[in-house]
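Q: We require from you a single protein entry containing the residue sequence and its fold in token form, and nothing else.
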Amino acid sequence: MLFGTQADLLARLKSSFKDGDSRPLALLSGSGLSQPAVPNVNTMILLLRKGLDVEEQREFDEVLLQHSIPADKYQAAFQFLSFRRPPQFRDRVIRLATLSAFNAGDAPLDATALVHAGEFEAHPDKWKLPDGMASLGRIWAGLPPSLRGPILTTNFDPLTEIAIRRAGGNATTQVHSDDSSFLTNMRVQVGSTVVHLHGYWRESATLNTQEQLSQERPALSASLRVVLQQHTLLVVAYGGWSDVITKQILNIVREQSSDDLDVLWCMFESGDALESAFDKSPTLAALRTAPGNVQFYAGIDANSFFPELERSLAGSLSYSSSSRSIQQSGNLVGWTSIEQDYLEGHNANATAESALSFFDGRLPGWRDAINDLVPVRDVTNTVKNSIIGSIDRRESTFTSLIGPSGEGKSTAALQVAVALTAVPSTRVLFHGSDYFGSDKEILELPQDHSYVLVVDEAHRFVERLRSLTQAIHESGRKKIHILAISRDTDWQSAGGANFLWSRYLPSHQYRMNGVSRLDAVAIVQAWEAIGARALGALQSYATSDQRVDALIRAANDTQSGADGSLLGALLTTRYGSGLKSHVEELMTRARAWGVPTTGSEQLTRQDALVFIALPQANGVNEMTFKVLARALQVSEPELHANVLAPLGQEAAISYESGRVLIRHRLIAKAICEIAEENGYDLTNAIRRVVSAAAQTLDGGVYQKDMGRLAYLSGNLPTHPQFQLVAAQAAVDAVPHQISYRTSLSAALRKENRSVEASESNESSMKLFFRGGGLTAARPFFTEWGVVEGTLGRWARNAVFVGLSLQDNQAFEPITIDKSTFAISCFLRALKKGFVATNDARLIQGMAAGVVLAQDVVSPQGLVWVREAEALVENTGTTFPELGDSADLQRALQQACNFAKAEVELPLPNSLPLMDFRFQGLIDLVQRRSVR
């Protein structure tokens, strides 16, 4: 096998950076990059051994003798330790080993020093950096954002971040010791992101044993796949352990999708040692057979290579006027420090084109927050000024910014953050990861600065924010300001709206909902500055005031509970009748991108758009990640990597908290209309969505509104032709679920196929006493009764509806909501029976039913109540008193028993016992009457 040299590698990288179409560079590093500042594998083993008693040391040595490869020895050592000591012992050893790279002067670096671990990172100049690491920091600080990808590392130490900060760069630490994706965290960043794949030396668990390193982590694997697809991956000082990273590379090779790969794998060894390394490592041996886009380079020593690379790339490295100044303030794991240098990296993307895509509904980022062509909302200035006043008063505060999706909350928060970076002695830290960190870490931030902690999707962290707010209050800590951003409904459901934040900190809540005239003026002025492409249909207005008026009218017209008025106004005023053309362009681009499904059917991102849009266009406003992933036949991590992230950048969707929606219902409706016009198979889309929702629910997973997706047959006002398709899909997906059979019966009935509906209901009785039949009995029998009524079978109608209203402890509890329709249907059946038989028992049952229905029946059923009431009065029958339970019970029971004797067709033998006692219903109505 041929190997490249260091000269080959330098030439390759230098030529790549000169090529404007080259991929950005990502780095994968291992323990060799931190040595000798941090102990190597052999030294770590010795440290572990010292923590054991004499007898255990002998056993420890015997275990390690079974392994010859240092990496295997390391994993075996930690496995031995995991059996003999608690996790805290392991973590303490790792932290103490990491601290050996810190120059504490005369202070002892023992276990007592560990409580100050976070504070030590605030002093980048006091850490010992190997030559290679120091050069890497300068390279990553100086690379243009377009050429700089994430740094992935299996190391626990902070030296990579320290090196970047010492070079004046901005580094965000992301920790992934569990299974989580880091793609979302990188969405708004251009600074250096360092992803610790196996944990971090503080505030985190650490993965060391073979079992831990080889565990399945699908979300992380999907993120790694995207990195591999979009970046050139430089692997340096990494031993090629059998972990999640090498597994993913091997998977791509095995899946014959290796065209996506561009991997430059550096080996420290050369000559015979190199061959020996490949012979001993199954991972390297497998990669050795990979095609030419996995290239190996031999004899690469990080401490000589990176300094050479830095000199080679000198002409490509660019530093801002304020860079190379060491940042001495504290940093939080999982948070991005927003500073002027960091924001300067976005200047190149803060263009008119970028502003236009923002106005189209693209998810906002820092480039929009610094773009002069993106207007600053009135609430932005209000929040900014409020926090500045609190900073001047040296207090700690809590501020929440909530509102519907599409109102501009995230944009406002980013703009507030940008403005606050200019406030002296103030640091802005932005949270966009799954890792929140500890209260202790935040409380121990250096007190020479004020800190503004910006938390997007704050509803995910309500409990953490409560704890932090209380901790700040109890500790008396000053100069910490929390800005929490959330969709209002999520904030409410997570408990954020009900917590008394002001009990612990001075608090303010701002709600974005609607477009003020001041906002409208700012928006129109921004469009006028860009010109015709931004104004769109507003060019037809002669003056700015007329354009502002049009924008405000559009905001009022497009405002709804689920959709923010701002985005709807932007779309309707700029595009007008051309909105469909704009959406069609989006769908055309989406159609060109396939989704790597596990099924045989070829799907694209356009399918994803339709799957999301079709329910939303009909008022079912949220699709869940789990349902969409199942409908597309992809894993949730693959969904994030290959569908959600790219469609979010296409100004099509927003996604958070396990749910995804089209950015506005106007877009959702346009997607459905275009799909129909282009002959798209909406029937198949309906089946996929409903089946996925039904199967997900059947698997025990529940999220708000997921049920409405499974029962989509009853929620298709704009597409009634698909009601039967949706109902049948749910039954096919989960045939034992009686409630889906109820929906199927209703859909068949509405299609004038009541005979089939009746047969379907009768055949469903064999499933009734399993699959949740008893807990879905009342609507099932009500629906069956209505079906029988449409077939002219009044007696069966009355019996089935009476069964749905009667006492039965095995049924779900009776409620007013579940009774209103049934009572009106019962009255109609009895009326038809009385007309046919003139039997007094039926008219007496009607009189009792009218009494119960007076304040209960919905407006739709009220007409049947009035008809029954008139008939009772015409016969001279006396209405029973509502308080006379016995009289009501007797009349209803006699009517039902008479109907049972008169049924037109035999009743199924498997029906529940019919004793027609209605005390539960009577009690319910009586209690309601008292109120």
